[in-house]
Amino acid sequence: MWPYPKIVAHRGGGTLAPENTIAAMRCGLNHGFRAVEFDVMLAKDGVPVVMHDPEFGRTVAGEGSIADFTARELAARDAGAWFGEAFEGEPVPTFEQVATFCMGNGIWMNIEIKPVPGFEDRTGLVVAQTTRRLFAHMLDHSPAALPLLSSFSFDALQAAKLAAPEIPRGFLVDTIPVDWHERLLALGAIALHTNHKNLTPPLARAVKEAGFGLFCYTVNDPVRATEILAWGVDGFCTDRIDLIGPQFAGVAA
Ligand code: G3P
Ligand code: MG
Fold first, then answer.
1. Gap from CA of 11 to ligand 2 centroid (Å)
2. Which of 16, 106, 109, 180 satisfies CB 3.0 to 4.6 Å to 147 for a cystine?
């Protein structure tokens, strides 16, 4: 089951913009994408913010944990300067700001719940509740109209399921574990998300035959993209939004 776009811009704008910022979402949009993946964790005040690393240092200058700063304090930090002068002053956005931008521009979202370690349950709950509130007017529509929550954290997805069971979930893994089917059933997940490097044709076939969606990260080579689509993979995210566009290989996004 995969009622969603097939080609998804990773972290908003892939390699063309500072990841997980509004500028990145705008970049993906300007490259024709109507589907993005981004990462969400909780700030100190419990507000979900869009950020990949739990620590400062790589995309936001400084030291320390994201969980020690409020969303307002994070909004004052520069998440764009590391990428280039043109992006200086781009703030760390809240989840709600990014979701509002995406909804306003017809962009589908794969919302990756990326908890700061120790905050798994709380992050899953807050992200799911926030998503349900933002999409309250769409809950009667088909699941295709809703975003897809995903996480490497089983606990975060369990919390999301309890808090907002109607928001679809996908279980993220680096390597597909032997008990993948039981885990998907326990989570009420509709899809398995996996590292394409660890996928094989028999595994892809097993997931599809069991009736689940199969999504891969992060596919940056067009040849590889063609290969895994032929294996039955339903969709993937890419950093190379310049090479692999939303209409890649004739795929209807
Ligand atoms: O959601 C797929 C992918 O984003 C997972 O890895 O580290 O890029 O968040 P990462
Ligand atoms: Mg991610």
1. 6
2. 109
